[in-house]
Amino acid sequence: MLRRIWTLSNLFLLCDLVKAVPVEQIPLQDSQLQTSRQQSRLHGRFLHISDLHPDPHFKYHSSVAEEEACHRGRGPAGYYGAETTSCDSPFSLINETFRWLDENIKDSVDFVLWTGDSARHDNDELLPRNDAEIKELNEYCVNMFLQVFGDKGILTTPVVPTWGNNDVLPHNIFYPGPNRWTRAFLDIWQPFIPESQRHGFEYGGWFWTEVIPDRLAVLSINSMYFAENNAAVDGCADRTEPGYAQFEWLRIQLALLRKRGMKAIIMGHQAPARTESKSSWDETCWQKYTLWLHQYRDIVVGTVWGHMNIDHFILQDFRDVTIDSISGRTLGDRAAMDDKLTTQGLTDYLTELRELWHDLPSAPKNLGTASKKKKDKFYKEIGGHYGERYSLSLVSPSLVPNYYPTLRIVEYNISGLDSNSAQEKDLGDTPSPYLNSAISEKSFKIPNSPSKSAPPGPAYSPQTFTWLKYAQYYANLTISNNDFTTSGWKEGKHKNEEPASNPQPNPKKLTFEVEYDTADDKVYSMKDLTILSHLKLAETIGQYKSKTGVPEELDGNKRGKKKKKKKHKKKGKRKKHINRVWHAFVRRAFVGAIDDAQLEDQFGGLSLFEE
Ligand SMILES: *[C@@H]1O[C@H](CO)[C@@H](O)[C@H](O)[C@H]1NC(C)=O
Ligand SMILES: *[C@@H]1O[C@H](CO)[C@@H](O)[C@H](O)[C@H]1NC(C)=O
Ligand SMILES: *[C@@H]1O[C@H](CO)[C@@H](O)[C@H](O)[C@H]1NC(C)=O
């Protein structure tokens, strides 16, 4: 059956009913640290840290079995945590991570984005969580941030927190505010929430703050109001829903930032993951988000997320926005993504991502010298020279060692941000032409587009605030825990073992090292982190040959595989390169903690492993 193609982008052409949407007059926001930071030098770097999951019940050398969850019994749980398991983080890991940040990072970052889940999971029937514990664990994390990124309890480097689905009880369930959680966190996050944002925060758990006064704001979203598995709310189409209100808030704030000539980062916990069969957000929220990011593509420099624990990125395609689904007239048929994805679930998810990327427009060979006709066709497909058909979500893996504990340092362009550089002027905007009866003010206001004269935003074309690269750091717990160094910890194999020769833990100092750095990485070889660079990477990851529409590795019997393998050999260099990129992508998804043999099991033959 044909899919409905009545997209909003079509409506651009169809309607000329233009009506200005005034920017609401809102008092200007005070910045978190206006006075203390105005003079300080920028480094062009920020830290993204996610999913700390401190667990006060964690015991080293306890059992990693599901019923024991590193809380009791005897087993291989290490001093700094049990890598490659579902156990949460011991305080030793949290403490040592902040010690490492203190010694290595704190003086070289401009701000910190902390994307939620700062309490343990509810994963032990014998030790159910309670409100007090969740708050205490969050307070513990707040204090660590204050110690490292502050001075005598006052922040000196902005830190921006956001809710995780495990920061409330019961997990995933977040009621419209004000509620006991928004009230509690108003207090717990007091050092981070600007005075002028406190009212809005109590209402919905969202806020924004200026991490570079008058230039760059971070909008912290309450992603639980978008989450498909939050049974207390119902999407973003209905005016009475907090998800609807959050988009109104986002629209108004982004319009205000545009007016002030500022740029914005959006952050949240649960990423807008959406593949053929599964989605983590309600479809109406995903639709609005994709539309909003398109309309504010001159403002939003990037978005960061956590929750999924695997390192990857997501592209939102503006052409997927349709009138019917944005207004909730047709419901998506995707299933809610499980809160805790199993290995199989993750494998399916990454494979589906790859299948999506398989269909991305591909650039003609040697784009620079290709014929004008070919070039034009390609640029038309991707929404112009900068790929403005798409927006990007970067998902960082977690500190909790589901694989290895990990952190990300993103570098961005600060040229033109010297103290005496002039503030960018308001470029204005263009009312959206698609206010027709199908989707009128009765339903919701469509954000204005960038001004026709505005240059493409920093997410699209290299300029001030463009994200240039990131370095993914990880701590090899197998080395630091120092329990299984002779045998080498192959994931899962120790689940019935005990470090018998070592009744006392004998840990080494915890240290983070670079897993990969997008700037000097030979496999990804990314010039920067723009949409175009990610489109190219995704398109390369998505390359495979298939008659059935699924990647060849998962396709068919052994004989078929063998035949195909031979073909690759003949094809030579190019094919090998393609395989390496997908291989690197899945290996990095799991922070290098899963060995190739298991990856091969998970993802099928992969045909990635030929040298
Ligand atoms: C972690 O740090 C806290 C506060 O500094 C301290 O009280 C606690 O004993 C430390 N715990 C571990 C396991 O290092
Ligand atoms: C950084 O931004 C400036 C403009 O502000 C631009 O000229 C320069 O090319 C950018 N640098 C990179 C590496 O993209
Ligand atoms: C971590 O350390 C172990 C033990 O030395 C080693 O076998 C493994 O390859 C290391 N993993 C990574 C990703 O560095």
TrEMBL record:
Region (Disordered): 488-509, 548-577
GO molecular function: endopolyphosphatase activity; exopolyphosphatase activity; phosphoric diester hydrolase activity
Listed Gene3D superfamilies: 3.60.21.10
Top-level taxon of origin: Eukaryota
Keywords noted in UniProt: Glycoprotein, Hydrolase, Membrane, Signal, Signal-anchor, Transmembrane, Transmembrane helix, Vacuole
SUPFAM superfamilies hit by this protein: Metallo-dependent phosphatases
Subcellular location: Vacuole membrane
Protein name as it appears in the record: Endopolyphosphatase
